[in-house]
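Hey team,

Sharing the Trk system potassium uptake protein TrkA run so nobody has to redo it. Sequence (218 residues) first:
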Amino acid sequence: MKVIIIGGGKLGFYLAKTLQEQKHDVVVVETDRRTCTEVLQGLQIPVICGDGTTSEALRAAGAETADVIVAVTGKDEHNLVACQLAKMMFPVKKTIAKVNNPKNAPIMRQLGIDVVISSTDAIARQIEWEVDLSGFKYIAALGQGEATLHEIMLPENFAYSGYKLSDIRLPQQSVIVAVERQFEVVIPRGNTQIFAGDKLVVLVKGNELDLVRDRLKL
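Structure output:
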């Protein structure tokens, strides 16, 4: 998946690093030349030193083939314009913007931004799972991002297919709140069995999602 990140500061760098580790195609657009050099040296990924609110910079970053545009600059108006431009001029499937002033979030949604998030931690987690192809999908954040809901599709080779939930030792800061199976929703208990092909809704606190993944052997 190809992701263009507008803004190469601390959050942009972190997101680029995370997505690069997941083997996604990442390009960063940044106006400050020194920051461009730092991103390039730190990650060895394509960096466009230009203004992400212009069609020229987006085109140079390859917006024609981008799946996601993520705008995380320090100015809400820049994030809005970059996302709107990506929607209007390029066939970008999803736009995600950080909003620095939460009061601007409703208007940004009204103006067509697909996902608007004000919490830095929440946007990091959402972007990570929005573009993840491993069967995990972010649903929502609770308590300003302190806890998050995720949807997990169990693969055909799921190691614990047929096991009861009580037989699987999930992290203490996580709980399976629902199981969807062939359009039926089950509120799980300890004796509930889970099978390959099931869709789980999992509530996790903090950074427990990676541990959930490990415990489920996904």
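The CA atoms of residues 179 and 200 lie 5 Å apart.

Ping me if you want the raw files.
A.
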